[in-house]
Specification:
Order of helices and strands: EHEHEHEHEHEHHHH
Number of helices: 9
CATH class of the largest domain: Alpha Beta
Low-confidence stretches: 134-146, 214-219
Largest sheet: 6 strands, parallel
Radius of gyration: 17 Å
Helix content: 40-55%
Number of strands: 6
CATH topology of the largest domain: Rossmann fold
Strand order of the largest sheet: 2-1-3-4-5-6
Length: 219
Amino acid sequence: MPVAEITVILADDHNIVREGIAALCAAQGMRVLGQCSDGKSAFELIRSHAPDFALLDMHMPVMTGVEVIRRLRSAGCPSKLVILSISREEATVREALRAGADAYLVKDGPSRHLLDAINFIRDGGIYVSPLLRGAGLFGRGAETRDTDPLSTLSPREMEVFSYLVNGLRAKDIADLLNISPKTVDTYRASLMRKLNVHDLVGLVKFAIERNLTSTSAQR
């Protein structure tokens, strides 16, 4: 899938890294809406500009990339969020994905991994660098395989999950959570992907099997 017309925001406290990524994005027809070097500025830029994608360094001043993602997801941000890190630790990758990251890339990987990630998560997938897929940690699409798939949902996704399986419509959920119906749809697509179900019937079946349909789902 072509990447033309995609809008991005870049956050990294190393100028040379950020400028290199900006050049790569521009060469692929993407439009860089803004750049910054700390987590607080990243949060504010992403909230104000609502880019298609945001590329976030894991370790930045003020707030880490994961902290930025948690705050954005709690605020209902629908942007695709990509973590860039030097860390290859499994715990670090899982922390980022559980916070709501759509992709995790290592900085010493080839530039094509970034382009692959953008195309993959644009279509609803979760992408982890192929350099981290050894030892059977990640399968196709880089989705984590936790014993309890509910543990992969963010707090806001759990709220949406609970309301959906108890029969509320997207508009009603949006009113309750003070977000837009479109954002509810984004959360629904994300949590269905994480739980490996393909429609609302499957989601309800998942909840019934775990006795989660009469009360709010808890993590």
